[in-house]
Give the backbone structure.
Amino acid sequence: MRVTVLELEDIDRILKKDPKEAVDELLDQVEDYYGEVPYILQFMKDMPDVLIPKVMYDNSIMREIKRLDRKTIELISIGVSAALRCTHCLDMHLRVAERMDIPRDEIFDAILIAGTLSNASVLAYGTRAMDAEKVDKGYQTRDKESHTCDVCNITGEID
């Protein structure tokens, strides 16, 4: 799988193109990167004013992430897709992982980590709400207060 990340010169050149040609080039590059064009980009292909900035934004992040390798990025993508319960994204990232020959046990580890963090998020949200809940004359109200989460150890204001 060839990895294509647009450099600033490429972005300038693409932005000067006819929108239809720019979309076609960007989608070709996305397909080179993933081995397919994700559904949402296919859906947006007739909306260059939406698709071009989205691809450029996504590309700018991917271009700047030089501390993580593609495999790690794909495992993160799988974990996030699983945690968000986005079946379509998860299916696509599983196909990409297969094309990248990422071992099944590493994929499962990413899903386990995402599940653990997702579970902690539910527990932190629910227990913070319980701690912050005040009952006054039968009405439930919340006063703003500072609280440190026992799960993630982050202090924040609860309203």
